[in-house]
Amino acid sequence: MDCSHIQFETCKSKVDCTQLKSLLDQTAFWARDRQIQDLEIAIAHSYPVVTVWDENRLIGFARATSDGVYRACIWDVVIHPEYQGWGLGQKLVETIISHPHLSRVERIYLMTTYQQPFYQRIGFEENSTTTMVLHAHAWTTQMQIGESPSSANIEAG
Q1: C-beta separation of 52 from 6 below 8 A
Q2: How many Å apart are CA 50 and CA 83, to the nearest integer?
Q3: Catalytic: which of 47, 70, 109, 119?
Q4: What is the C-alpha separation between 69 and 131, in angstroms, rounded?
Q5: Residue 109 a catalytic site member
């Protein structure tokens, strides 16, 4: 398939959040309830952000957060179903990883539900030792009813 007309962009200002919401709604069961205002906030706090375009049509997206030295996490990797199988997803992830802000990071993490084989082909490995999550809603509710999280028992130095 000829992909010479496909463009990869790393400029946040080029993200069209209306098209991004539509792309996420079509491709990502885990992102179907996201709101445009929240996507704008997430993008503002992410770096790098990479978009993939077929002329004026947004067909791919990924973003990362990082301290630029020790850790980074890749988020929201999506390619429109009509364009999957062309190698664009791999190029999208490689574009994020090779970005100067991530290029010297010690560890790059990502979370995926069903795409482990795809990411393993790029070089990611399964890592069961660091999988933990704090659901903010549950934590906030716990704090509102006066329960302290277990870490609150640690004395401040």
Answers
A1: yes
A2: 16
A3: 119
A4: 21
A5: no
| pLDDT tens digit sequence for 16-73 | 999 999 999 999 888 888 999 999 999 999 999 999 999 999 999 999 999 999 999 9
Q: Is 4 strand, coil or helix?
A: coil
CA-derived radius of gyration, the chain: 18
Q: What are the tokens at 68?
A: 């630029």
Buried/exposed 93-107: b ≥16 CB within 10 Å, e otherwise: bebbbebebbeebee
3-state secondary structure of 110: strand
Lookup: tokens for 147: 């329960």
Decide which of 46 and 14 is more confident: 46
Helices (H), 45-129: 88-98, 116-122
